[in-house]
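=== RUN LOG ===
request id: a7f3
mode: sequence -> structure
chains: 1
length: 334
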Amino acid sequence: MKKIVIIVMCFLCFGCKDKDDIIIEEEPTNNVSLNLLGEENITLNYNEKYNEPGFEALNGDEDVNDLVKVSGKVINRPGEYTLTYELSVDDEKIVKERKVVVKKIEDEENASFIPVLMYHYFYDDEAGETGSDGNYLAKSLFEEQLKYLKDNNYYFPTMEELNDYVDGKINLPSKSIILTMDDGAESNYRIAYPLALEYEIPIVWFVVTSWTDPNMPYQQEIINSGYVSMESHTNDMHRAGCPTNHGGIFQCISREEAINDLTTSKQMLKTATTLAYPFGDYNDFTKEVLKEAGYNMAFTTEWGVVKPGMDKYALPRIRISDGNSLETFIASIS
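=== RESULT ===
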């Protein structure tokens, strides 16, 4: 900001002392400007990529675009988003906002079922890595699957939307699908997460909170991306110790211990409403405890698709196996 100062030499004026200087300060002249290029209000169709129109920031004739701080993001999910542009030069601060609306997908057909996919771990076959067991999936195959879903305009409901869909409260587009990953392993962050960002496909991680702290900076980065939501895989019940089914301890632990575990996990994750049973083991006891702990839904490892009216505490999923062709993948979700 610059001030114009005028010095007047007073020789003959009433009330002036001989040759005293009178300094008159005019109102500050603002030479700092921030203008948004393009529209300030933008509407996008679902799956339409957002292209930032940019801005122009000047301090007089000087380009100060590098001083502009932009906050907020637009993700490929229906909703309203705000981008904030802030320019600070000396004592001058200018803030502008851009509103972006992503419209809901237009699909007259209501989904008769929702495939919920189950992944575990990944390996980078392009870098020579191999998977140690059937729970691992090659990076190249995962990317091929994501590309297919993106190219074919699939819709990715949130857990809240799925809950309402099962309750019969809402309809969902015919090509709806949800991608889930159990355990919260390192390869999810290293391999799956970058691909989710690249293809703008949201994924749900069921994490064991005693194995990974969701409040760590890199975990917060994942959550803040808008393409990863974290749900519960319990706090410390992903272990054996029960003689039934696959041996998951959840079925045999005391009610008090189970409630404490589920509450701890919920508190650490902050927004968790859904659980994936460790080892896929569940019974009437686990369902009752989940309701008591405030969970809305739970997933098993049983094969199947989710349909309206199902038991929300025993929802099936489709396991995605390594080595299967894209044609096999397409058939499994169809």
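=== NOTES ===
The chain is about 20% helix and 30% strand.
Residues 255-269 form the longest helix (15 residues).
=== END ===
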